[in-house]
Amino acid sequence: MDRLGGFEPAPRVAVGVSGGGDSVALALLLHRWAAGQGGDVLALTVDHGLRPESGEEAIAVGQSMAALGVPHRILRWTGDKPAGGVQAAARTARHRLLAEACAEEGILHLALAHHRDDQAETVLLRLARGSGIDGLAGMAAIRAEGAVRILRPLLGLPHERLLATCAAAGAVWVEDPSNQNPRYARARLRAARSLLEAEGLDAQRLAETARRAGRARAALETATTLLLAEAAALYPEGWIRLDPAPLLAAPAEIALRALTRCLAVIGGGGHPARDEAVERLHAELAAGLEHGRTLAGCRVLRRRGAILIAREPEAAAEQRDALPGERIRWDRRFAVMPSARRESPVTVARLGAAGWDVLKASRPDMAGLDLHPAVRESLPGLWSEGRLEAVPTLGFDANGHIPMDAATFSPVLPLGRQAFQVVSCDDGII
Predict the structure, then answer these.
(1) What pLDDT, in 10s, does the model give residues 172-184?
(2) Which residue spans of the chain are classified as CATH 3.40.50.620?
(3) Among 158, 265, 402, 420, which lies 20 to 30 A Cα-Cα from 21?
(4) Which residues are annotated as a binding site?
């Protein structure tokens, strides 16, 4: 934990606990560490509701945590579940629920129990999918995700050692049956573990591969951040202006990474751009980009000698209801909070061309606003029964009141994020 660093006095740390030996060991170890710092730990268990017994299992995890003296909360994934891609959807829901719980509790750090064997499996899976340097770097020990810092303190430790830690403390854990289900790629890799180890692909060797790839990734990301500091300007309406000269003068790998990061920030990161598509965009920019492009939920075009990257309005299709005073994240880009003085809920949806026409009719002075149509039409508007109530980003309120609603551009993926973290320790690599 000292090597991960960056903790406030008397730190509060949340830990994701599934009930397996790895996460129980992490909760146990973090509880002891936090107590020594004058802080405390909150265990969080997500009940995905995918199996009839999942609710009882989550309660059992709470009982196990109570025996260790660790406070515990159950977070439930409610609503309809997808017919396909259940694992990916469950992972997305889990991350969202954990982050929301941390925000509610005012906790800045979320610890996850991924260990050395998980890291090795990640490298193998990404190798099988043809990943480059970024994928082979595996999971980072430290990663900022919105207002929460994701920590993985156990990446240097094997699974067996964590189970031994639980046994020594008399802690109770359960094994997830899906860990042995051959439907899942990770379970198939575990079944082939002895064969892989006989060929030299043991967990330690794969973790070393991740360390070396991580070192290269960190260097590339640092160079990318330096390029963006020179070439990019980020605006509160949710768009980026790029100076083409430094972008096109940079090594191709760094320029491609800069473009990918810009697309992820403005597009919300929901549909990552494929490498070949970014390469085509880079070539078109070098040739002058005569016509605009749509990529990764973004519009990319030349404007006044610069490159403009804006959200594609049609892609900003999310509609979310929000109560007065409730803070929500919309389109993975904006933090929106309707005024607590409102008398009823509103629906947060894109302004669109029709909404822009309504705004201009009500406020003719807005007609001269120097924003590209893609920018203004993808802004969050507050709607009620089909009527535009407000556009907080532009300071517009349909009733002529002093605007009290708030909408802040706050993308999940920051433009100037820190480089991939490689944390060394004496007996392994985190």
Answers:
(1) 898 765 555 555 5
(2) 12-210+421-429
(3) 420
(4) 18-23
